Amino acid sequence: MDASSAFQDTLPLSSDALLAQLDDWGLAYRLHTHVPLRTVEESKSVEDQFMVSGENALRLKNLYLRDKKKRNYLVTLEQSREIDLKALGAELGVGNLSFGSADRLLQNLGIRPGAVSPLAMINGVTNNVRFFMDGAAQQADVIYMHPLVNDRTVAMARADLMAFFDQVGCEVTWLP
Question: In angstroms, what is the C-alpha Rg of the chain?
């Protein structure tokens, strides 16, 4: 199965259910549909379809990682930021990091590869996934991310994303 909305009903929480929950909480977003995107390069090829000129926006890349003690992490970064996993593990004080498997991604964040997103913390908080976010998000007005599937993108005001984290009980650790 791929990470598109065609298979969202096989997820613990569907994209439609997530969007309904955002609506119930009064959190605003703009929803865009597009071809399934699995990489930052693919995302860059379609972002002109929905980016707003002059908007102070942050586009993301997301890493689902594990350490040797089998602790899980979601690390959300500005999409062009270079990352060294060894240096990141040292910075976070957790030792060596490696990418988590597709099975663990589904088990712990309720999503498939290609749809990794901070919004997956709606599932991650109950599975003890620790969340780290690029400090650049604190300067952005709007943040673009997948709503648990990779053929949709939502644009949320930073304040609404922070309110989402509060609603789900997600502690954000900021990365410099």
Answer: 15
Tokens, residue 66: 């594990």
Q: Note whether 19 and 31 are within 8 A (CB).
A: yes
Greatest C-alpha distance within the chain:
44
Q: Is the pTM of this model over 0.90?
A: yes
What per-residue confidence (pLDDT) applies to 147?
97
Q: What are the CB-based long-range contacts (under 8 Å, 24+) for 89-95?
A: 91/175, 92/132, 92/173, 94/67, 94/69, 95/67, 95/68, 95/69
CA distance 94 to 75: 13
> Has residue 67 got a pLDDT over 90?
yes
- Residue recorded with tokens 């990352």: 83
